[in-house]
């Protein structure tokens, strides 16, 4: 029972996180400030991977109720899923370059004073 619960919760988290990442890349909602928004290519790859793996995990979990031989695949898939989410979390925290300061603009010479 705990195996199924952990598999379905992990699949849901992976599907939600991957979908959120893909949607934020294609149509930014403004939830993530532009300074910390991840690069498009790695984010779309991570989002696609999380959605695909979450869907496979949920599908294998559902099919294992009908086909008993699939139960043996649940634990390794769950462990790989937890490892994937851990690597994804590390990428979110450490794998992005954050630009806190805006790029310096050109000076017009008056420095805010009217002449």
Could you walk me through the main structural features you see in this protein, from its secondary elements to its overall organization?
With 115 residues, the protein is an all-alpha fold. It is 66% helix and 0% strand. It is built from three helices and no strands. The model has no long low-confidence stretch (mean pLDDT 83).
State the main characteristics.
about 120 residues, 3 helices, mainly alpha
Determine Rg (CA atoms, Å): 21 Å
What best-fitting shape do the alpha-carbon axes yield? elongated
Helical content class: 55-70%
Order of helices and strands: HHH
By DSSP (H or I, 4+ residues per run), the number of helices equals 3
Low-confidence stretches: none
Structural class: mainly alpha
Query: How many angstroms separate the termini?
Result: 77 Å
Question: Major beta sheet, specifics?
Answer: none
| DSSP E strands, number | 0
Mean pLDDT: 83
How much of the sequence lies in strands comes to under 5%
Blueprint (SSEs and pairs):
Blueprint: H1 2-26, H2 40-66, H3 71-94
Helix pairs in contact: 1-2, 1-3, 2-3
Give a short summary of the structure:
The chain has 115 residues and is mainly alpha-helical. The protein is built from three helices and no strands.
């Amino acid at each position: 029972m705990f195996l199924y619960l952990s598999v379905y919760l992990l699949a849901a988290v992976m599907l939600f996180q991957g979908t959120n990442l893909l949607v934020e890349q294609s149509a930014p909602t403004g939830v993530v400030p532009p300074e910390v928004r991840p690069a498009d290519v790695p984010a779309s790859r991570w989002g696609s991977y999380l959605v695909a793996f979450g869907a496979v995990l949920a599908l294998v979990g559902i099919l294992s109720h009908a086909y008993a031989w699939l139960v043996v695949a649940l634990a390794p898939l769950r462990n790989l899923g937890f490892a994937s989410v851990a690597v994804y979390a590390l990428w979110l925290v450490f794998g992005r370059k954050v630009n806190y300061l805006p790029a310096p603009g050109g000076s017009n010479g008056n420095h805010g004073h009217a002449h």
